[in-house]
Structures are given as structure tokens and as C-alpha cells.
Amino acid sequence: MDNKIKNTFDYIENELNKFATDNWDIFYLNDQSRQISLRNSEVEDFTESLENGFAIRLLHENRISMVFGNNFEKDKVLKTIENAKFILKMMSPDNHFSMNKMIHPAKLTDSDKDWSFFDVGISDKVSKLKYLENKVFSEHKSISKVEHLGFSESYSNMYYRTKFSDIHEEESLVYGFDADVIAEDGNEAESGSDFSYKLCFKDIDLDALGKSVAYNAYSMLHAKPLKSNAYKVVFRNDVVASFLSFFIDLFSAENIQNKKSILDDKIGQKIAASTLNLIDDGVLKDGLGTIAFDGEGTTSKATTLIKDGVLNHFLYNLKAASKDNTESTGNGLRGSYYSIPVIRPTNLILSPGQYSYQDLFSSSGEDILIINSVMGMHTSNRVNGDFSLGATGYLMRNGELVSSVKQFTIAGNFIDLLTRIAKIGNDVESFPYGGNILTPSLLFNSISVSGI
Amino acid sequence: MIVLEPQFIHKLIDILLSKGGNFSDIYIEEDEMFSFVLENNVIKTIKTGNEGGVHLRVISDDKSYCAYANEIIPDKLEILAGNIADSLSAGRTNQAKNIDSNLNFITTSKLHLGMYESCIRDFLDTSKKIYVASPKICQATLSFSQSFKRIWIANSDGLVSSDERQYSRYMINVVAKDGSITETAYEGPGITGDQNIFDLYPLETTSEKVVKRVLASLNATQAPLGKMPVVLMGEAGGTMIHEACGHAFEADFIYKDTSIFGNKMGQKIASDNVTVIDDGSIPGLYGSFSIDDEGVEAKKTVLIENGVLKGYMTDRLSAGLLNIPLTGNGRRESFRSKPIPRMSNTFIENQNMIPEEILSTVSNGILVKRMGGGQVNITNGEFIFEISEGYEIKNGKVTNQIRGASMIGNGPDVLNDIESVGNDKCFLPGVCGKFDHVPVSDAQPTIKIKQMTIGGK
């Protein structure tokens, strides 16, 4: 450990032990990242960053307080600690506030961190972007512009301890490419985007990314309005991921306890098709969301939320677990040093089924609608699961494309959707949507669509 | 207090421009914040902290090379500046113009926790009142946040400037339940400046409004679906003008030729009665400031005048590239991002009609009194917005409330489809997430749109 970090911990520990507390914790984050974006074969943007910051929480007599800062001058740190003491007095007491005493990091089976590309020169990174740019343009004659083509690499190192524990460390390193392109034909313009984030640089397939981002744009040209009707609908895996990312809050024990989820009282009940299994796995090998312990120092593990269609368990942090007299599932996560730990998924896995993506829409004799993007997800209701979204997609007949379609809305309820799953695909991909979501595409029975 | 002397700023800028580039700037920020959240009549969290950092940038033609760090350590800044210079392809060397003033960072704290004790007590009282207002109310979440932000800017043109900004905002979110129906409603007033937000938007008035709205919405019925005329009330705020039209006037999209309004300067793009303005200089509004995040004074910019496109919103980079005026719209969330053209307070200007007169012209349509969230596809202008409080209009009269409805349409089409414009514009605060998040506000008077698609359950 860096001397500066060690000294910061020592200084804060020394100050915190000057007054009575039941427990305290210190969270320290060190981030380094680089981002490069390309336009017209030239670097349009280059950003390098360095960040350090800390958060302190105090627990005393059933009250908890949190303060943060990134100024390491002694008088500033001291003022921050004074603020923590002051806030402690203002808080409402709650005997469910709790902190871990000791930290037992989970034993991870992750591969070694891939440093192979982090320290190579900028020109090598730029040439990968140029390769991707060429790939995108060569995919289809209608691709007219690359709006954004980006590379990012971010390294972060987190240190955490409580009053009673040693300092524990967690490292992460992620590489990613993202792209946003425009296809034009006549007066029509459509955009398409996609990305790929991996822990290992060699796992990023730029050919596949170039192909899919171009397809997302040009395949929507000349899209037609869709007639209002009830359709069998396929949600492409990226669409399923945006649903899961938004509605995972229904599985948060804190929301259940606060009557902010319709899954209240439903443990042990069948809430989904019996083919559906949903698991949050914090120790998944090489998962983007894999951690040894969470932002409260709880050991990471796997939790089955839905087993064969039956609601099995919720996601817990320490406070919610205390209320339900159970154990935290290790889902008290901090977004950064200035964030309070909140219940979020680590690696949320919708277990794959037996069908290929094509199988999902290839049955004969009926129209099947593939949804490839939805708009307005954040306007959905996190409490009761209702949604009403703008959507675009492809209308398929006998497995063949009839036309791409747009300007229609799909509306319904997330939990109701889960009961309508007819087939689960095997095309699992990973989507870092505020937690890492791993999901295949899904086919649903009849969903009503409002168009023209 | 930290002082960066003119010699050091000069040296830093020289390093930044040592291997090419036309312009460089240094942006420094110090931020103090306090926030709390109440749920179930108890304080759920109180959080306070400070943070700050520095952002260095070189502009070379249409390209940006940046670095940021959250500590202001001169040696480290020199290294970062060197890294930026190295990332430019070796070219001509540029130098800073004379810089003759210090950058003085007076970092005495403006935030004293004692000043929030009575505020928390008031929120606890309000929360209790909400829960007893009706047995149908099952959840109330109240939150408050205040931040004090100070920024300092120096650039290679010799500019040295600074600004202080104070933001206050609170939110009340209430969930009510009746049988199987669950509805939510919220209000979230926000201001800039040192006025007391509770003098302008009393806690009690706001909470009564939210309670009334959530209880009324329990009695709403399904919305009719299909294409029909839509009246947006003034009190609905200007989310649509911001989202569905405003972004297309941002000059970075114009330069990149991805805006539907590129090459349309001087052309008719909206109905005659539509004038759209962005003005960051209106005191107290949530999107206001005295200088933008590149040191350009906030000002009023006419985007559309009587239906004709008159101007775009710029930052330094896009104004330079397009050779159009600086409008003071170069904004960023923090030292972590470079500035880009962003809206401030954006609105459709008032005309003469009174809202009742507009309503009376609709035989069959939808009245929107409160907008929810939405999303826009910037490339083709298509959008969806949730209607969080809406009613059916029949024969010019407002009838039953509707639920679960959303409206979809196309920004440029809507501008041409605005039939009438009222006299009652009303600003609502918001947060724009174009790239990072900046505070904005938007407004429109009551307007009638010829037709839009209403979707829903």
C-alpha cells in the first residue's frame, strides 16, 4: 500500500479513537482512467484522470453518520470528522443501523488482472479505434457518420477497514469500447449504438462490435409504423438487461420493508414462468461486478432471487438484514467515495435456456415482433412494476424480416411479463448497467402494442 | 487559502501548449454539500462532504485533450499537463497571453451544519402531516440538498475569472394506494443564489400540492389511445421544449451535423407564434449563473423568433469552429468533464391567449397538467414523455383524469404543430443529463399541439 494511503488511514484512526463510538469505518478510493474518442480517423478527445477520496462513517448508540472528502490536509480531515460527530447527534436513532466488525473477503477464482494493454502507448489504443471505425464503415454503404467511438480503461483500488479490522483492499481494471453511429438513406437518418466492456483486453471482439453497432443503425432505416395489436414479442438481450437493471429495485429488501415493492409477501410464491431462474452472484468468475466484499465489508456470495419461477430471496445490505433478522447478501454497494452504500446487484444472472436467438422468432404461421430498443425506461414505476415505453424493432414472419418498425409503445407490468415468458434464449451477454447484468433474449406470449 | 501565482499559471499553460493546440484552459472547483433524506417519518441519511479538483484542457482545431485530478498539487498538475501535451501529435508550439492576476482560492467553509437543525425538524413535522392526511398514503420520502460551489478559470487568452454558486433544492415524493391501484406524485423546487428556498416555496404549500395530486390520481381512468390534440398547461413546465427541441440548438450537434436544425439559420422551422429563448442570466432560476464554466458571461439567446431559427447555443470550441457568437452555454457538472454546449433556462415565450381560451377550442383531446420523465432520440427527433397528471378534454371542458399515459411525437413536427400559445409560462427546475448532469430550468406557457400520439396501458 502507498505510504500516503497508509498515513491517511493512520491519521484518521488516531482521531476517531479519541472519542467513544460503537464502530466506525473508513472507505478509500483511488481511481485512474483514460478515455480516448475518435472522429474522422482522428483523436477528438483524450482525457486522463486521477482521483483519491475517502468516506468515514460513525456508528454510535443506534445512530450512523457519513461524511466524505478528497482534501487530505490535516485540518480539513479534522473538520470532516467533526462534521461526522455533529451529524451523529442529528440522526434519528434506529437499532437496525449496523456495521461489520471483522471483514472476511470471499475467495475469488478470478483470473489475474490484465495489465497487457493499460500501459501501452496512446497510439496503439488509437489504432484499435481506427480499426473499429473502418469495420463500422465497411459494414454497410448507408453508414454515413460515426457520432462517437470511444476507448476507456479504468483502474480502481479500494481500501476499507472498520474500527476492529485490518485494512482490506480490492482492485479492479476494466477495458471498454463504445460506439454510436448514424446510417442515412435519402431523407432518413437513424442512429445505432453498442459497446463491449471486458476485464481482459483480448476478450473484446472489435469485429463483432463494429458489425452490431452498424446493424443497429442501418437496420432501422425505412422503419414503418406498427399497427396496434397483440403480438408475440422477443426482447433482445440488451432490452431484457435494461428492464432487469431498472426493476431489480423490486427485489431490494429495503424497498420490500418500506412497502415500495409489489413483491412484498410473495416469498415462496410462483411469480414467473417456471423456466426462469434469477441469481445475483457476487463471486462469479471474471464477472464485471465481482467483488470479494461489498461497500459495508460484507463477504460477497451468490443469492438465488427466483428459483424455477418461485420468488426465493431478496437483496440485502446490513440494515435491511437486521430488520428481517437475516444475513446481508453482500449487496450494500458504493458507487464512489462520496456515495452511501445502497442495495444494488453485483452480477445479476438470468439463467440461459435452450433456444438460440433465431429459434425465438422462427416459428411459422405468425408474426413475431422483436424489440431492439426502448425509450423512457426511467419513467417506469419502480414500486408496482408498470411501464409504458416507446419502442423500435423488427417485425418477423416465418423467421424472415417483414420490416423494421418504429413509433409504437409497449405497456404492461414487469412482474406480469415474467409470467408470460414462453422461451428463454441461450445468447447470454454482459451489460454493465449499474451492476453487471448477464442475460439472454426472451420470447413472450402476447403483449399489446399501441401504434397506428 | 491556496494561491496559484501568475507565473505558475503561465508555466502550466505553456506546458499545455508546448506541442500544439490553439487554446488551453485551467478550471478549478471547490464544492461543499449537505443533504438529507427522510422516509417513514425518520431520517434515513444525512450526508455532508467537500470535494474539488482541477481540469486542464488543450483545444487543437476541433479536438480536445484533457486531464483532471481531484487534488490541487502543483507538481502533479505539471505532470498531467505534460501528459496532455504528449498526447497531441507533435506540432507547432503556442504560448499563453499575459496573465496578470493571481488565482486565489479562498476555501473557507460556507457550510455550517448548525444551520440545518431547524430545517430537519420542519421536514419531520411535514412528513408526519403527510402521513395523517389520508389513510391511503403509504409512503412519503422527503429530501433536501444544498451545495456551495466555487469555480476559478484561467485560459491562454489571458482570462482569469471566478464564480460562486449556491444551489438549494428539496423534493417531496408521496405514494398512495387504493386497492390494487398505486400512484405516486412529486414536487421538487430548486433555486440558485442565497435566498431561502422555503420563503419562495414554503414546505407546507408544496406538501399539500403533492398530497392533493396523488390522492386525485387514484381516481383516474385509462387514457384513450391514438392521435389527438394535446394541450400542455403552463404549469407543466418546459420539459418538452428542452428535450424535444432544445438539444438540437446546441452548437456541438450543429458542428457535427447531427442536428435536425443544422443549415436552417434564418429559415422557418416553427409556427409563427413560437419564440424560444435560452437565458442563463435570469436571477435565482435553477439553471442560472453569472459566468459559464469557461468564464463567458451568461446572456439571453434567441433560438427561434416568431417561428424563424435565429441562433444556436455555444461553448468556446463550437463558437470558434462555426464562427458564431459566444452565448455563455459552455457548462459542465464538475472538474471531471470538459465543458460542452448546454442549455440554462430554456423557454417558449408568452403570447396573448389566456389558457381557458385555448382549451375552449378543443373538442376531443388531452390536457397535460404535469409532465413526467421522457426520452428523446436526437438523430430523428422522436420522443416519448410520460403524462403524470393528465385529463381528457371534451367539448372544450376538462373532464376525467387519466392514468398511465404517455405521449410520443417528433420534436420538429411539434414546433410546426403548435396552434396556440398562452400567457402563463412557469419555470420548473430539472437536471439535464446530455453528457454529465447540470442544473437547468425550463418553461412554456399553455400551448395547443394539433396532434400527438397518446400511448398507455
Annotation keywords:
heterodimer, A: 452 residues, alpha+beta, PmbA/TldD fold, six-stranded antiparallel sheet, globular, B: 457 residues, seven-stranded antiparallel sheet, six-stranded mixed sheet, 10 helices, 25 strands
Q: Overall pLDDT of chain A, averaged?
A: 94
How many beta-strand segments of chain A? 21
Which regions of chain A are unreliable across 5 or more consecutive residues at pLDDT < 50?
Answer: none
Name the quaternary structure: heterodimer
Strand content of chain A: 35-45%
Mean pLDDT of chain B: 91
Radius of gyration computed on alpha carbons of chain B: 24 Å
Shape designation of chain B: globular
Describe the sheet with the most strands of chain A: 6 strands, antiparallel
Structural class assignment of chain B: alpha+beta
Count of discrete domains of chain A: 3
Number of domains of chain B: 2
| Coarse shape of chain A | globular
Counting DSSP H or I runs of 4 or more residues, the number of helices of chain B is 10
What does this structure look like?
The complex is a heterodimer of chains A (452) and B (457). With 452 residues, chain A is of the alpha+beta class. Chain A folds into three domains: 3-90, PmbA/TldD fold; 122-154 and 168-223, PmbA/TldD superfamily (PmbA/TldD fold), CATH 3.30.2290; 225-450, no CATH class. Chain A has helices at residues 3-16, 74-90, 122-139, 206-218, 237-247, 253-257, 318-323, 357-360, 414-419; strands at residues 23-39, 42-60, 63-69, 143-162, 168-185, 188-198, 224-225, 229-235, 278-281, 302-307, 310-311, 332-333, 342-343, 347-350, 367-375, 386-397, 400-413, 421-424, 429-432, 436-439, 442-450. In chain A, the strands form four sheets. In chain A, strands 3-2-1-4-5-6 form a six-stranded antiparallel β-sheet. Chain A has a six-stranded mixed β-sheet with strand order 11-10-9-14-20-19, covered by helices on one side. Chain A has a five-stranded mixed β-barrel with strand order 8-15-16-17-21. Chain A is globular and about 75 Å long. The N and C termini of chain A lie far apart (62 Å). Chain B is α+β, with helices and mostly antiparallel strands and 457 residues long. Chain B folds into two domains: 2-217, PmbA/TldD fold (2-Layer Sandwich), CATH 3.30.2290.10; 222-456, no CATH class. In chain B, 20% of the residues lie in helices and 42% in strands. Chain B has ten helices and 25 strands. In chain B, a hairpin with a 2-residue loop joins strand 2 (23-39) and strand 3 (42-60). Chain B is globular, with a radius of gyration of 24 Å. The termini of chain B are far apart. At the A-B interface, strand 2, strand 3, helix 2, strand 6 and strand 16 of A face strand 3, strand 4, helix 2, strand 18 and strand 19 of B.
